[in-house]
Design goal:
Distance between the termini: 24 Å
CATH class of the largest domain: Alpha Beta
Strand content: 25-35%
CATH architecture of the largest domain: 3-Layer(aba) Sandwich
CATH topology of the largest domain: Rossmann fold
Number of helices: 10
Largest sheet: 5 strands, parallel
Strand order of the largest sheet: 2-1-10-11-12
Length: 275
């Protein structure tokens, strides 16, 4: 039996990573301090598994993670860090519809009237995609390696978008709004993924005392709704997402310093980390 005092479930872009530079360097020592207290930091992100693995290798940290806006959960086969972290070090404990089945729906006759109203990443030129994503062209290959979702840029009206969403819903698909893209995926979200993760951890004799979530965008709301403490990170030149729950903390700083600020505003957590 393993007991965890706290479980941190966090979005990455705009939350732990700076929205524009994707840097986390100003809080590296804080992250390391949390890890030494045997608190799991679990990415729950719209990023792909390759993007998350790159981040975990940078901070040399083996941990469960959730990708593509709740579409899949990867759990370490064992928690012994021993060099480069690879996908083979993880068990895929949950996944929703795969990308192939999603594209099959999009290419069906029911969606022919919508095909010129949006663009997926595969149809966007690398230079334009770099501008939209904030990534360098050399890092675009990982964002395109999606297994369970499609990133979409909508080029039509809100009315048409609502019709599109309704039709997707009938096909057991969902469209979630992130900070930069729309995320087309199977039914489910970041909150449902947390439920599945916690259920798996309980069945593996891992007890969690309290959970903390951190996010910045609309697709983070289901995650923020699920945890004991919820932290909303300030985005540059944008209002906070509309979320009113209990035990909500809003950072005044942007990521990554806002990530530390929000966590430190939870008194009992700060006391535990620095006891």
């Amino acid at each position: 039996m393993t007991d965890l005092k706290y479980l941190i479930i966090t979005d990455l872009d705009g939350t732990l990573l700076n929205y524009e530079t994707f840097s986390y360097k100003p809080i590296v020592s804080f992250i390391k301090k949390i890890i030494t207290k045997k608190i799991l930091i679990i990415p729950n992100t719209s990023k792909t598994k390759d993007e998350v693995l790159k981040f975990l290798n940078e901070i040399k940290y083996l941990t469960p993670f959730i990708v593509e806006s709740g579409s899949a959960i990867y759990f370490p086969k064992k928690f012994d860090y021993s060099g480069k972290i690879k996908i083979n070090d993880f068990e895929l404990i949950y996944s929703s519809k795969n990308k192939k089945s999603i594209n099959k729906v999009l290419n069906s006759k029911d969606f022919q009237n919508y095909k010129n109203l949006y663009r997926t990443t595969s149809k966007i030129k690398n230079k334009d995609l770099a501008d939209l994503s904030g990534l360098s062209i050399k890092n675009l290959k990982d964002i395109k390696k999606r297994d369970f979702s499609e990133l979409i840029v909508w080029d039509s009206s809100k009315k048409n978008l609502n019709k599109f969403k309704m039709l997707l819903n009938k096909k057991d698909l969902s469209l979630l709004e992130g900070a930069r893209f729309l995320h087309l995926k199977g039914k489910g979200d970041k909150g449902i993924a947390i439920n599945k993760l916690l259920k798996f951890m309980k069945s593996s004799n891992i007890n969690v005392y309290k959970t903390i979530s951190l996010g910045d965008s609309k697709n983070d709301i289901p995650m923020l709704n699920r945890t004991d403490f919820s932290c909303i990170i300030k985005l540059p030149n944008k209002n906070y997402i509309n979320f009113n729950g209990e035990s909500v903390f809003r950072s005044k700083k942007e990521a990554p310093l806002g990530w530390k600020e929000a966590l430190m505003s939870i008194g009992e957590f700060a006391d535990y980390v620095y006891e």
